[in-house]
Amino acid sequence: MQTDLLQEARRQAQICNACRYCEGYCSVFPALHRERAFGDGDLTQLANLCHNCRGCYYACQYTAPHEFDLNLPQALAELRRDSWESYAWPQPAARAFHTHGVRIALLGVLGFAVLFLLIRVLGTGAGNGFYAALSHSAMVAIFLPAFLFPLISLAISLRRYWADVGGEGLRLSHVIGAFASAAKMKDLAAGHGEGCNFEDEDRFSQARRHIHQAIMYGFLLCFASTAVGTIMHYVFGLPAPYPLWSLPKLLGLPGGVLLTLGTIAMILLKRKSDRALGDEKAWGGDMAFIALLGFVAASGLALYALGATSVMPLILALHLGSVLSFFLLTPFSKMAHGFYRLAALIREEQKKRAAP
């Protein structure tokens, strides 16, 4: 990781540790105040605990023009992005996505869409519904490796992170505590429970918390829909397409709506926020990921609505191209932050329970 980012984060953390005004703002400050010195792993842990709510910045008396010039949200955001790039496997892909995220995502979607259209021309389709455009065996052959790759890549990355932050053996209580915090988006409500200051400067708002929840639960519903469809196909011999009142549709449709609306709202919210309080180098990659995730959901809904029309093959190609790009880019995009943040919350549970 970059030494200058670690040194700046250490300088600011030491000042915050001496001040302690922001004691109960979020998970970062109790964790920060437990330490007397800050090793590289301690700073990386703090960076991945931070949700960039920015409440501490607006409450701080040592921000510019004070000579201390504190901007802890930015320092931790830059260190967080640098840690993801350092732990990523393969590493160059992460740095490339954060720098050229929009271009890479767009080329990936269009390139894979053309590939799927060419496969259709070769005549692999042999079935009902979408399988008439692309056979089930072709989909499995393409998407199974694409699904396994991010799992392997993230496992390598998280193992590196866990070693650097001094992670210990997992206990069920640690995992449950971390999942409970993540499910509630607890730190986006901040210590006062009134929300964060992400988009309205020193005004509190719950908007970012609710938008995050819409995206997270929308994604989980879509994933559950896919998982249920897979079980129905392979275990019960019930292949797609499925009717409206089937479980895959009952999970997937509201999930797609939540995900589409959530990503649109997040793009609008981020455009209102102050970039100087985040990591400007990650702006393009963040926006590309949100747009890609939203397009996956929106194209899935369009595919359902227009699946019986002549434009179905084109929409299917674009949807599958976006899904394939999403899978392959997951370890290097903002999607990885959910895994790192969960790991950070688990490590925080371990430290809290070990504290005297």
TrEMBL record:
The chain crosses the membrane at residues 104-123, 129-152, 214-236, 251-269, 289-306, 312-332. The keyword Transmembrane applies. The keyword ATP-binding does not apply. InterPro entries: Citrate_utilization_prot_B (IPR012830), NarG-like_sf (IPR036197). Keywords: Membrane, Transmembrane, Transmembrane helix. This is Citrate/tricarballylate utilization protein. It comes from Pelagimonas phthalicica.
